[in-house]
Amino acid sequence: MYEEQNKNGLPHNKTQKKISFAKIAGSAALAFCLTASLGLNIYQLKESAKQSKKLNKFIDGQLERQAKEAETKNLYQEDGFLIGNEYEIRSTKVVSDAYLKGDDSNLEEEDKQTLKMASAILNKIIKNGMNNYEKELAVYNWMYQNIKQGSGSTVQLPGTSRNAYTPYHVLNGKNAVCVGYATTFRLFMNMLGMDCHIVHNDYHSWDLVQLDDQEWYQVDIYTDVSGNSKYQNFNISDEIARNSHEWDDSSLPEAKGVKYSYAVQNSRKIHDIYAIPAKIKKILDQKKNAAFYKFEKPLTQEQLPIADLLINQLNAALTSMPGFETYTMTGVWFTDIDHTYILGIYITNYSETLSTTYDENSVEYKKMRKSISKAFDIENPNAAEGKNDEKEKKNSDSVRSNTENNLPRVI
């Protein structure tokens, strides 16, 4: 008997076997693909879990860092902080707000007096058309000339403090410790509509002001007054301030302003660095204490150290001149807006102290001198000092020791 054949002429059983084999092979291939796909999916899930874990760890780390930064910022205290565990930085916002609103009805009596004194000073020194920098400079100049470091008078004035640290006592007695300078300058800036912070560490305080270029500048009037170094710490950057100051900058704006740097505002072009000695001689003759030079041909970074040679030799020449033994010069490089360099030179006379005494040509001075001459039967009240010169010379070591031991703490 012949086997039944299909249309292709092949035995029907053989055809079924081939079809079954093909089905098995297809199923096996499909199973393999499914298994491979499942394995790939499992691998991807594992990798995704790993990446997710890493991402979560990164996010947690960032959140922890931000929390620590926030905690650090919260630790920084401006108003209410004690400098040297003694002088409190006190808020004057109520006074500046009253000035801006033109209403002092809600002020306490001391704040009213503070507002009255501060307003009178601003009315005197601020002129129409001034920009914020010019207003700030006018305040700096007034404070430098009129507020003395430590104590401002031989006889303590009523209602004043020898260690004045509030604007009321500063403006009333014309003397201040560093906190007094900082809070009074901040008060003036706030009254003029400018943002101002007090920067501090545990033993010193100064100011950080924002001008109309929206940049911040550091100002330390106390250090300039105590060092007889006008403008040396006026509108400087963080970079320059760090040469002589230390503070926690984590919660304060960065002072990186250039436009209103005193050096940029007052620089003069000069041919080259060798022309500076003649310029400095003229400055000394004019009794000025600072100069800023920008070179026609900008110096390269490699050429900047030549300023050390210049300052060292200028100092040697200066101290060799009669009457200039107590003078010294310092130099600072500033960066201009166009990223070129400006050389600032400061001249300081360390024997010179700012005084609140009367002018010797004033009517009051001459009248007082005459009355003392008559009472003590001497031609010149100051002549008596000469009689004691020899005695003072013999006791100078003892006097110096006693004086040093009784000096108020300088901060």
Structure description:
- With 411 residues, the chain is of the alpha+beta class.
- 48% of the residues lie in helices and 13% in strands.
- The protein has 15 helices and twelve strands.
- It has helices spanning 12-75, 93-101, 109-125, 132-146, 167-173, 178-191, 221-226, 238-241, 262-266, 276-285, 306-319, 363-376, 384-387, 389-394, 396-405, and strands at 82-83, 87-88, 148-149, 175-176, 196-200, 205-210, 216-219, 234-236, 268-270, 290-295, 327-335, 341-349.
- The chain has a four-stranded antiparallel β-sheet with strand order 5-6-7-8.
- Strand 6 and strand 7 (216-219) form a beta hairpin.
- Helix 5 packs across helix 6.
- The radius of gyration is 38 Å and the shape is elongated.
Number of helices: 15
**In percent terms, what proportion of residues is strand?**
5-15%
Roughly how many Å is the radius of gyration?
A: 38 Å
Overall residue-averaged pLDDT value: 81
- Runs in which pLDDT lies below 50 for 5 or more consecutive residues are 151-157, 384-411
The largest sheet is:
4 strands, antiparallel
What's the helical proportion of residues? 40-55%
Number of strands: 12
Order of helices and strands: HEEHHHEHEHEEEHEHHEHEHEEHHHH
Separation of the first and last Cα atoms: 125 Å
Based on CA inertia axes, which overall geometry fits? elongated
- Enumerate the strands of the largest sheet in spatial order, edge to edge or round the barrel: 5-6-7-8
